[in-house]
TrEMBL record:
InterPro entries (UniProt xref): PsdUridine_s_RsuA/RluB/E/F_cat, PsdUridine_synth_cat_dom_sf, PsdUridine_synth_RsuA/RluA, PsdUridine_synth_RsuA/RluB/E/F, PsdUridine_synth_RsuA/RluB_CS, RsuA_PseudoU_synthase, S4_RNA-bd, S4_RNA-bd_sf
Keyword Ligase: no
Keywords: Isomerase, RNA-binding
Entry annotated with the keyword Coiled coil: no
UniProt-recorded name of the protein: Pseudouridine synthase
C-alpha cells in the first residue's frame, strides 16, 4: 500500500496532505526517514509520524451463531456444561456475545470484537429490537397478549427493585407466536409469560437489530456479510440518533 494511503487510513491526514507531511521529512519507516511519497509500505513495517508510531484502525468482525438449547453463554462454566465458545474456532473465542440467551433458549446470537458496537446493541437506553418465536404449553390468549404489550411486573432484579417487562409487538402464528422486545432483562420473556400464567416449551431468537437467523443450522456460525454488517451499523446509528 502506498504510504499516503496508509497514513490516510491511520487518520493522520488526507492523502494529499500526507504527501506534504512526507516531503517535510516527518515520516519514517523502519527507522528511515522517507523522502518520496510513492513509497510502498508493507504489513509489519514500523511507520512513525513525528516519532510517534501510527497504525490503521483494527478491522472488527461480527459473527452470527445459531445457539443450541443446553449450552451456556459463558466463557467457562463451573458445572462443566458446554458453552457457546465450544462451538467456535480459537480465532473467535476472544469475541463477546451480544445479548445472552439463557440455558434452554436457542437461536440467533451475535458476537463481536467491537466494544462500541457491543455497548450500543446491548444497553437498554438504545432500545434495539430483537424478536423471538415462543411456544407455550397452552395457546396464548389475545387478552393476555395485550397484557404483555401493556407491561407486567416480573419480580425483583438483583438490586431488590421491582421490574416490569413488556413486549413491543406480538404476532400470532400456527402453534406459536412471535414476540418483539427492545430490552434484554434477565430471562425477561420467561418471567413475563410466568406472570400471566403460561409456561414456555421452547424459545428461539430469530432476529436482532435487523439481522435474521435465516436457515443457519443449529450449532453453526458465519461472519456477517458486508451488506448485513452495514445495515446493522446503520440501524445502531439511526437508533442512537433518536435518543
Amino acid at each position: 500500500m502506498r504510504i499516503n494511503k496508509f497514513l490516510s487510513l491511520c487518520g493522520v491526514a488526507s492523502r494529499r496532505a500526507s504527501d506534504d507531511i512526507i516531503k517535510q521529512g516527518r515520516v519514517s519507516v523502519n527507522g528511515k526517514i522517507l523522502e518520496e511519497p510513492g513509497f510502498v509500505v508493507n504489513e509489519g513495517d514500523d511507520v512513525r509520524v513525528d516519532g510517534r508510531k501510527v497504525r490503521p484502525p483494527k478491522k472488527t468482525k461480527v459473527i452470527l451463531f445459531h445457539k443450541p438449547a443446553g449450552c451456556v453463554c459463558s466463557a467457562h462454566d463451573p458445572q462443566g456444561r458446554s458453552t457457546v465458545y465450544d462451538y467456535l474456532p480459537p480465532e473467535y473465542r476472544t469475541m463477546k456475545y451480544i445479548g445472552r440467551l439463557d440455558l434452554q433458549s436457542r437461536g440467533l446470537l451475535l458476537f463481536t470484537d467491537d466494544g462500541d458496537l457491543l455497548y450500543k446493541l446491548t444497553h437498554p437506553k438504545f432500545e434495539i429490537p430483537r424478536s423471538y418465536y415462543v411456544w407455550t404449553t397452552r395457546p396464548l390468549s389475545r387478552s393476555d397478549a395485550q397484557r404483555l404489550v401493556d407491561g407486567v411486573e416480573i419480580g425483583e432484579n438483583e438490586h431488590g427493585e421491582m421490574e416490569e417487562g413488556h413486549a413491543e409487538e406480538i404476532f400470532f402464528d400456527e402453534g406459536f407466536f412471535e414476540m418483539v422486545l427492545c430490552e434484554g432483562k434477565n430471562r425477561e420473556i420467561r418471567r413475563m409469560l410466568e406472570a400471566v400464567g403460561y409456561t414456555i416449551r421452547d424459545l428461539k431468537r430469530v432476529t436482532y437489530a435487523g439481522v435474521t437467523l435465516g436457515n443457519l443450522p443449529t450449532g453453526e456460525f458465519r461472519e456477517l456479510s458486508a451488506t448485513e454488517e452495514k445495515s446493522l451499523r446503520e440501524m445502531v446509528e439511526d437508533e442512537n440518533s433518536e435518543k
